[in-house]
Design a protein that fits this description.
Layout: H1 3-8, E1 12-13, E2 16-18, E3 21-23, E4 28-32, E5 39-44, H2 48-67, H3 70-86, H4 88-99, H5 103-123, E6 130-132, E7 144-151, E8 154-158, H6 164-177, E9 181-185, H7 191-202, E10 211-213, H8 220-225, E11 231-235, H9 238-247, E12 252-256, E13 262-265, H10 271-283, E14 295-299, H11 303-316, H12 335-350, E15 354-357, E16 361-362, E17 365-366, E18 369-372, H13 379-382, E19 389-395, H14 399-407, E20 413-417, H15 421-430, E21 435-438, E22 458-459, H16 464-470, E23 472-479
Parallel strand pairs: 1-5, 8-9, 8-11, 9-10, 11-12, 13-14, 13-20, 14-19, 18-19, 20-21
Antiparallel strand pairs: 2-3, 4-5, 6-7, 7-23, 12-22, 15-18, 16-17
Helix pairs in contact: 3-5, 3-7, 4-5, 4-7, 5-6, 6-16, 10-11
Length: about 475
C-alpha cells in the first residue's frame, strides 16, 4: 500500500479483548499520525465495567494457564513468535504511522519482538527451583526440601509508546511462559500496533482469558490496585511509577522508569567509534528511550577531537518521513512532546549553554541538538529530556563524576568507552546503576539480558529469564 493510500484509508476501530471475545468500547479517542496529522485509529476508552470483566476473565483463566505444562506453553509461544515474524512489515508499518518512529527501526523492533517471544518459549521449560540441603542442621537431617516455582496468577502489564511492540513482548511473553493470565493496557498513543500484536499472538491458541486488553486512563488505577492482580509490570515515567508503587499494596512490581543516559569517553578510547555511537544513540528513536545518550562526559585530552567527530556524525543522520526507508529518525510522539524538548533546550541556552547544533522543529519533528557549556543544575543535564538532544561535558578527574551519578536519583544504565581494564572495573564497582556497558553507550541492550534500574530508575529486571523469575513465586516443599 502506498503512503498516499495509507493516508486516505479510514481509521481502524480498535476493539478490546476480554475473555476470548472482541468487545467494542462505548467511547473512543483519535490516534493521529504525528508526521501527517491524519487519524489512523479510533482507540477504546475502557470503562470500569470493561476493567472489571477483564480482571475477572484473567482470574478465571489463571487456573487453565497454570495447568498448561511447560512444553505446551513453549509450543504456543513458538507458534506465536512465528506468526509475529510473518507480520513484521505490517506491524512495523503501523507502529511507524502511529508513533512517528522510522520504519526501518519499527521493522527491526518487531523482528526483535518475535525473537524475544521465542526466547520466552525456551525459558518456559527451564523454570527451576532449588534443592535445600537439610542435613546442614540436626533438626533438618534426614528430611528432603525443595524450593519450587509456581505462576503468580494474574499479571497487569502497562506499556509505553516509545517501544510499544518490544516492551509489550517483554511483558506478555514472560507472563505467558510462566503460566500466568494477563491484563494488558497499552499506551493510548500507540494502541493499534499493540492490538495487531495481540491479535497475532492469540492466533497461536492460548486459552480464553489468558490475554485481556483494556485501554485509556480511566481503567488504569483499577487494574493496578485490584486484589485479583498478583503482579504489576510497568514501563514509563518515574512519576507514574511512584504512583503505582504507592497503590499496589503488598503486590510485587517491576518498574522500568527513566534515566539521563550518562556515557563516558576516556582518553584511551577509540574516539571515532565512540563518537559515532554517542551521536546516533543520542538521537535514535528521536531520543525517546529511557537509556538514550543524554550526558556525555569526555576527557579533556580528547574533547575537541571527539566533539568534531560527533558533529560530523550528527550532520549525516537523515531526519524525515518515518515511512521512507531512507529516514533514520522520524518524529517525536506528538507536537506537544517536541515543543517540550524545544523549551528545555531554549531554557538551557538562556542559562548559558552553547548549542553546537540546534535542531529546528516542524510540527512533531525536531532536529538534533548538541549542547556544550552546560552545568549540573540545568534541566537538560539533571532531568530526562526524552528527545533528540544531548550535551558534551569535559572532565579531567572521573571519580567525582562516578560519585555524582551514584548519588543522583537516577540509576538505569551507564556507558563507558575505555581500553583500561582498571577503569572499567572501577566503573562497575563504584557507579550505582542497573548496568554498566563497557565500550558501548548507555543505550545498548540485548533482549535476553537482565535490564533495569535502581533508585528512581526502577525496580526489578526485564529479560525472559529474569521476568519469569519475578512472575513466579517460590513455595517450600519439605518431606519428613
Amino acid at each position: 500500500m502506498s503512503t498516499q493510500e495509507q493516508s486516505s484509508a479510514p481509521p481502524v476501530r480498535i476493539r478490546m479483548q476480554i475473555d476470548g471475545q472482541w468487545r467494542e468500547a462505548e467511547q473512543t479517542h483519535d490516534v493521529r499520525d504525528p508526521y501527517r496529522g491524519d487519524v489512523i485509529a479510533l482507540a477504546p476508552i475502557s470503562s470500569l465495567r470493561d476493567g472489571e470483566d477483564a480482571l475477572e476473565a484473567a482470574r478465571k483463566a489463571k487456573t487453565a494457564m497454570a495447568a498448561l505444562p511447560g512444553h505446551e506453553r513453549a509450543r504456543l509461544l513458538h507458534r506465536a513468535a512465528d506468526l509475529v515474524a510473518a507480520r513484521t512489515e505490517q506491524i512495523g508499518r503501523t507502529m511507524a504511522r502511529e508513533t512517528g518512529k522510522a520504519l526501518r527501526d519499527a521493522i527491526v523492533e518487531t523482528q526483535r519482538a518475535a525473537e524475544l517471544i521465542h526466547l520466552c518459549a525456551e525459558e518456559a521449560v527451564r523454570i527451576q527451583g532449588e534443592h535445600i540441603p537439610m542435613d546442614a542442621s540436626s533438626i533438618g537431617a534426614g528430611k528432603i526440601a525443595m524450593m519450587m516455582r509456581y505462576p503468580v496468577g494474574v499479571v497487569t502489564a502497562i506499556t509505553p509508546f516509545n517501544g510499544p511492540i518490544s516492551l509489550t513482548a517483554h511483558k506478555l511473553g514472560p507472563a505467558l511462559a510462566a503460566g500466568n493470565a494477563l491484563v494488558l493496557k497499552p499506551s493510548p498513543k500507540a494502541p493499534l500496533c499493540v492490538h495487531q500484536l495481540v491479535e497475532t499472538v492469540l492466533e497461536a491458541g492460548f486459552p480464553a482469558g489468558a490475554i485481556n486488553t483494556v485501554y485509556g486512563d480511566t481503567v488504569g488505577p483499577r487494574i493496578v490496585s485490584d486484589p485479583r492482580v498478583d503482579f504489576v509490570s510497568f514501563t514509563g515515567s518515574i512519576r507514574v511509577g511512584k504512583m503505582i508503587r504507592d497503590a499496589v499494596g503488598m503486590k510485587r512490581v517491576a518498574l522500568e522508569l527513566g534515566g539521563v543516559g550518562p556515557t563516558f569517553v576516556h582518553h584511551d578510547a577509540d574516539i571515532a567509534e565512540a563518537a559515532k555511537a554517542c551521536a546516533r544513540n543520542g538521537v535514535a528513536l528521536a531520543g525517546q528511550s529511557c537509556v538514550s545518550v543524554q550526558n556525555i562526559y569526555v576527557h579533556k585530552r580528547v574533547h575537541d577531537r571527539f566533539v568534531d567527530a560527533v558533529l560530523q556524525e550528527v550532520d549525516a543522520i537523515r531526519f524525515g518521513d518515518p515511512l521512507d526507508m531512507a529516514t533514520e529518525v522520524g518524529t517525536l510522539i506528538d507536537e506537544e512532546a517536541a515543543i517540550r524538548v524545544e523549551r528545555m533546550v531554549a531554557e538551557a541556552v538562556e542559562e548559558g549553554a552553547c548549542a553546537l547544533r540546534a535542531g529546528t522543529r516542524r510540527g512533531a519533528q525536531l532536529g538534533a541538538t548538541v549542547l556544550s557549556q552546560v552545568n549540573p543544575n540545568m534541566r537538560v543535564v539533571s532531568d530526562e529530556i526524552f528527545g533528540p538532544a544531548f550535551s558534551i561535558q569535559p572532565y579531567e578527574d572521573i571519580a567525582p563524576l562516578f560519585a555524582a551519578i551514584s548519588e543522583s536519583a537516577y540509576g538505569l544504565q551507564c556507558g563507558i568507552y575505555t581500553n583500561s581494564l582498571d577503569l572499567a572495573l572501577s566503573a562497575i564497582r563504584t557507579i550505582r546503576t542497573g548496568g554498566v556497558i563497557v565500550n558501548g553507550t548507555s543505550r545498548w541492550r540485548s533482549d535476553q539480558m537482565p535490564y533495569g534500574g535502581v533508585k528512581d530508575s526502577g525496580i526489578g529486571r526485564e529479560g525472559p529469564k529474569f521476568s519469569i523469575r519475578d512472575m513466579t513465586e517460590e513455595r517450600l516443599f519439605v518431606l519428613n
